């Protein structure tokens, strides 16, 4: 792969790393390709499954018995609801009770979702009724070229299937109100009413006068979907659609040091976790544990769902994989105590125009390494043991890490880390790549951080077992 040569350096544990040894443009390009192909959690899972199958991973079905299917040295994946993915590789030296090394991320992002009854008209405009999903920076959705993506349930010869759809071309827009129709007070406050102001325009009503528009969804919308899927409108039985930006992601800056794209929160860690698992699984000959990636849906709305981090997905994954070798409850408890999870979700980089929002000693920057997130009130799961283990892994990987603690007078977000660790008892550290504009329709990270994050995760998969055995914390 082509290396980018710039005069740029950083010091890590007393060792100087220059840009030539640190930065590989291929990782940024691969991330852009991954995100552009993944407008919804359904597409994230489909894309990841395609890559996993190419790498020799075998698909499992949660409705089947796994005993006899999962073997030492094997590589596997399965999904739940097609929006949550679990992939894992069993080391050649694995024995029951040994460590599970888990990287957890999430597939969903704050978006506008099409309502069950979306057919809507106003003042001669045909609109699509949408609902806010998660806590988005909704003002960033105005004046963007939007389209539709998601899944559609269709009927074919008496059977029902769920098909993915991504219309790609610009179809909708949420226009701003022009400056001349706003008072100075309205311009200065710019308050968005989520019910009234975010409903996008699809077409003019006049263009649909010869069509029946009395159903839950407009005939224009249904015909667009039917044409894309190659079916008749009456074959469409249900749908779960998301509005998405049509502008692809891009690198930018004088040295292409930045990357901006939709849905970096948190597809970037689905990508870096997947990249690390694929790299590690090429050689499992010295692996004593199970290396696992779990990408959950519904993190942005609290994780309480059948496929969220608050569900049994994680505990099921541990017990079912272990159960293929040893089904005793005692061995499961030993496994949990030997295991470790990295909860990976983007972190808050310091904003140059709002630096007062960061605590003075905890100001992560772009391109300066993965951020370890700590909160004494358990909004993050990091503690002294898990934080130390991660920092030591970073030292061995020769990659930089940064620290983040929120100001006492600011609210603190949370992650899947405290949820999974509380439900399973697995030791957990919270971390993430530093980002700007989190929850905007277009977020920003540093290109260097993609490569160093993958390297950190790869070292976790390959080196955690040995490191943990050298520690006496119990």
Write a compact overview of the structure shown.
28% of the residues lie in helices and 27% in strands. The protein has 11 helices and 22 strands.
What features would you highlight for this structure?
5-stranded mixed β-sheet; alpha/beta; 474 residues
Describe, in plain words, how this protein is organized in 3D.
The chain is an alpha/beta fold and 474 residues long. The protein contains eleven helices and 22 strands. The longest helix has 23 residues. It starts with 8 loop residues before the first strand and ends in a 5-residue tail after the last helix.
Q: Which bin fits the share of residues in helices?
A: 25-40%
Strand order of the largest sheet: 3-4-5-15-6-16-20-18-19
Strand content: 25-35%
Principal-axes shape call: globular
Query: Could you say which structural class the secondary elements and strand pairing correspond to?
Result: alpha/beta
Number of strands: 22
Averaged pLDDT = 93
């Amino acid at each position: 792969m082509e290396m980018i040569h710039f005069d740029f350096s950083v010091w890590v544990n007393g060792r100087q790393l220059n840009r030539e040894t640190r930065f590989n443009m291929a990782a940024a390009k691969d991330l852009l390709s991954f995100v552009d192909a993944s407008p919804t959690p359904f597409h994230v899972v489909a894309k990841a499954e395609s890559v996993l199958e190419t790498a020799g991973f075998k698909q499992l079905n949660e409705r089947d018995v796994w005993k006899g299917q999962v073997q030492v040295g094997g590589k596997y994946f399965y999904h739940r609801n097609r929006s949550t993915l679990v992939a894992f590789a069993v080391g050649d030296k694995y024995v029951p009770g040994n460590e599970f090394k888990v990287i957890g991320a999430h597939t969903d992002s704050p978006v506008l979702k099409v309502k069950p009854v979306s057919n809507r008209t106003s003042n001669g405009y045909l609109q699509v009724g949408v609902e806010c999903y998660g806590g988005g920076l909704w003002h960033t959705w105005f004046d963007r070229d939007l389209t539709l993506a998601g899944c559609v349930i269709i009927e074919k010869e008496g059977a029902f299937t769920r098909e993915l759809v991504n219309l790609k071309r610009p179809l909708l827009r949420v226009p701003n109100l022009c400056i001349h129709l706003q008072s100075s007070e309205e311009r200065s406050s710019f308050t968005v009413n989520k019910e009234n102001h975010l409903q996008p325009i699809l077409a003019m009503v006049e263009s649909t006068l010869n069509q029946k528009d009395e159903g839950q969804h407009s005939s224009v919308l249904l015909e667009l979907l039917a044409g894309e899927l190659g079916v008749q409108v009456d074959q469409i039985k249900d749908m779960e659609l998301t509005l998405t930006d049509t502008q692809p992601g891009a690198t930018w800056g004088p040295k292409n040091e930045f990357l901006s794209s939709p849905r970096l929160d948190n597809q970037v860690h689905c990508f870096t976790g997947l990249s690390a698992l694929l790299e590690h699984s090429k050689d499992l000959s010295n692996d004593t544990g199970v290396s696992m990636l779990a990408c959950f849906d519904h993190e942005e709305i609290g994780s309480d769902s059948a496929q969220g981090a608050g569900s049994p997905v994680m505990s099921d994954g541990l017990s079912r994989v272990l159960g293929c070798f040893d089904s005793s409850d005692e061995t499961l408890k030993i496994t949990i105590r030997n295991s470790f999870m990295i909860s990976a979700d983007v972190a808050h980089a310091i904003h140059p125009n709002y630096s007062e929002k960061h605590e003075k000693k905890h100001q992560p920057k772009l391109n300066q390494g993965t951020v370890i997130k700590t909160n004494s009130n358990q909004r993050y799961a990091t503690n002294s043991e898990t934080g130390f283990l991660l920092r030591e892994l970073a030292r061995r990987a020769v990659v930089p890490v940064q620290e983040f603690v929120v100001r006492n007078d600011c609210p603190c977000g949370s992650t899947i880390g405290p949820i999974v660790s509380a439900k399973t008892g697995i030791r957990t550290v919270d971390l993430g790549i530093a980002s700007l504009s989190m929850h905007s329709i277009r977020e920003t990270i540093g290109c260097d951080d993609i490569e160093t994050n993958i390297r950190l995760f790869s070292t976790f998969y390959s080196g955690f077992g040995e490191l943990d055995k050298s520690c006496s914390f119990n």
